[in-house]
Amino acid sequence: MSKHIQKLLDKSDITDNLYRYCRCVDRLDPELGYSIWSSNSVADYGDFYQGNGPGVIDLICSQHKQLLTHSHQMSNILLEVQGDTAASESYVTATLRINKNNQIMQMTVWSRYIDSWTKEHGRWLLNKRIAIRDLDEIRPVTPITQKYGGARDSSDPSYAEVWQDPTA
């Protein structure tokens, strides 16, 4: 296989891990989140969290259980791969809803993740993340509907239709 094709495959694998991270926090699936971090990972989320990768997954999933709903999206993913190491910058938008004093409030946070990756045993794993919060807001909203079609756990329809083995 050519180096160019291998680099494209590596970039695709890393991008899949970034998307798995979003799925993990939106579906409250810590095991999926743990699967993207290396055993000696470092997560630097500023004053929100400093520690290892699994620890930040636990904190985020625990806090998200208190929310009404939430959705995370990744975009503007830039990746540089050099052999078995890589670096990336990705933008993440987190939209979260809470009920505060009988008023639905929507929080939106725009951040960037500066990540370093290592390929171990054929799998790309996240070694270090620096999370940079660029913007945030909270405002009252009026939901269009009170019932949504998804679920924040493995009963979500995506688990029946989209099977992803993070070790594959």
Automatic annotation (TrEMBL):
Q: Which Pfam families match?
A: SnoaL_4
The record's region (Disordered) falls at: 146-168
- Ranges where the SnoaL-like domain occurs: 6-129
Quote the SUPFAM superfamilies the UniProt record gives: NTF2-like
| Matching InterPro entries | NTF2-like_dom_sf (IPR032710), SnoaL-like (IPR037401)
Q: What is this protein called?
A: SnoaL-like domain-containing protein
